[in-house]
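During the reporting period, we have paired protein sequences with backbone structure tokens. One record among many follows, to show the layout:
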Amino acid sequence: MRKINYIFTLLAAFFLISSCGNSQAVQATQEVQTTLNANVKHAEVEDLLYYLSSDELKGRETGTEGIELAAQRIENIFKENGIQEYFETYRHNFEIDGVEGFNVVGMLEGNDPKLKDEFIILGAHYDHIGIQEPVDGDSIANGANDNAAGTVAVVELAKKFAEIDDNKRSIMFVLFSAEEMGLVGAREIAQQLKEDKLDLYTLFNFEMIGVPMNDKDYIGYLTGYENSNFAEKFNEYSGEKVLGFLPQAKEYNLFKRSDNYPFFEEFNVPAQTISTFDFTNYDYYHHVADEAEKLDVAHMTNVIESVIPGILKMANTAEKEIKLNQQDSK
């Protein structure tokens, strides 16, 4: 269990008390302790991971019955935990090459009269590539690491922030579809939110977090690390080195290869992805063997717990402290 204690001391004003013509100043001091419980239940992480990457969902290809079942499970969890609809329903619909797709979108409105109009988006794509050529009799590309793992992170964070209920800024939770068709779902909703004049502060995307990296002094790497002060401020907020730099992420330009990128293009704000897949620690990218059994659920749970303090702080600072570097802004 990960618990972070914050101690707040409130100094009361001096009270002037008059009695029988005499005045007396009395100073009252009150100490209030609040506890942020950042514990995430291992069993619930495991349960959702195994469902989303089960054979029943047949690889969650956009436009199929399998991704419909995945969406229904996510929507039910949102409803059970009081996650609000941003659109008229939890779905944001679009069409690509005759295929009907939809993102799943929920939100928690901020509790500050002004800051609630500013949004943080937590996102992950929940689609995968469906049925493939058989390998040893298995034709279902279950997509456990890619990207049931990231989807589980966003859903569990939605549950946790609904429980905490202490965000000044609004938080939107988006599960993107048609990522495997070229970031289509992310592009469609980014354009829609831009048209709606959404005030987007940051987007934090989760991609392939199912296995730990070796010999790193951070938990996950951030794509586009050098584009902003996101990692620096987030680590400061967290009190530990959660986010780090992976040279291969820059070498392969991963910043432009996940659902964060359409939001950077549309909004010109810090929109970046956390991942723990480093090209050496998992051999089953877009493979029928990308199964839940190969993932490290304890590691996934730790990743989810580790980002909670940083996101909460990001949602509550008086000013927008996370910014693009000058050369990377449009």
